[in-house]
Design a protein that fits this description.
Length: 255
């Protein structure tokens, strides 16, 4: 038997295992895409309330109605909001579910704006209108950021993507996308003058990396909307340079 003849059976075995590996990978990818595209299959509890559809991996308490009512109150502060806008919410009390759908199990919530426009919220206590921080860490600015704030914030992202096209993150600066969502979700619960003074002294509360809060972004859009009288459509149509806004807000100019 020649060397070539001896190697031929081995090659067939290798090719067989390569094919099996390729098929296995393809099946895993298809299964993952199925979970992402059809997440209700992974959540056993479901309710519909007004324009919201809510799924959870745990029983959904009746207080969800009050939480959603408050989220709607906040969303109504946006001139982009349409009352018939459908919002799908998935409560991922098991953190691995949040990671599967958002590639992130540390955030309060995430919105899939590329494929489904679904909102995924981390472990929460719906009955008390609060979400739990990862690793039991204290939640920054908890008094101004209940669960209804989180839902309204992510709901605003859904509205942004519907109004300004899906590749929003490719077209608009991150600060603008997040600051408008924070502005809407806070529903006016924001002291402009106080936060401007904090900006001037470089307070860590206005540094996203140090605080985990969008207060600096919020200050910027509050200036554009509340002080300059611009609408969300006008701002997104011609986003200003953030550095110019910060220079102005840090100056002694009376706005």
């Amino acid at each position: 038997m020649t060397r070539k003849q001896r190697l031929f059976p081995r090659r067939r075995v290798v090719i067989k295992y390569v094919k099996l590996l390729a098929i296995s990978i393809a099946l895993v990818v298809l299964a993952y895409l199925g979970m992402v595209a059809f997440p209700p299959l992974m959540f056993s509890n479901h309710i519909t309330y007004q324009n919201y559809k809510v799924w959870s991996d745990r029983t959904i308490p009746p207080q969800i109605n009050q939480v959603l009512d408050d989220a709607t109150r906040r969303l109504h502060t946006s001139d982009l909001y349409e009352p018939n806008q459908k919002i799908n919410i998935f409560f991922c009390n098991d953190s691995w579910r949040l990671w599967i759908h958002a590639f992130d199990d540390q955030s309060a919530a995430n919105t899939d704006t590329w494929l489904t426009r679904n909102v995924y919220v981390r472990e929460s206590d719906i009955a008390t209108n609060r979400f739990y921080a990862p690793d039991s860490k204290p939640i920054p600015d908890l008094i101004h950021r209940p669960l209804s704030y989180v839902i309204a914030h992510e709901g605003t992202h859904v509205i942004e993507f519907l109004q300004f096209d899906r590749p929003l993150k490719l077209k608009y600066p991150h600060w603008l996308i997040e600051c408008y969502a924070d502005y809407v979700a806070k529903a006016g619960d924001f002291n402009f003058d106080e936060n401007r003074e904090l900006l001037k002294i470089d307070s860590p509360l206005l540094d996203l990396q140090r605080s985990g809060l969008y207060r600096r972004f919020h200050l910027e859009v509050a200036y554009l909307i509340d002080k300059k009288g611009l609408t969300a459509r006008q701002i997104f149509a011609n986003p200003p340079q953030e550095k110019d806004l910060l220079t102005l807000l840090k100056s002694d100019v009376i706005l």
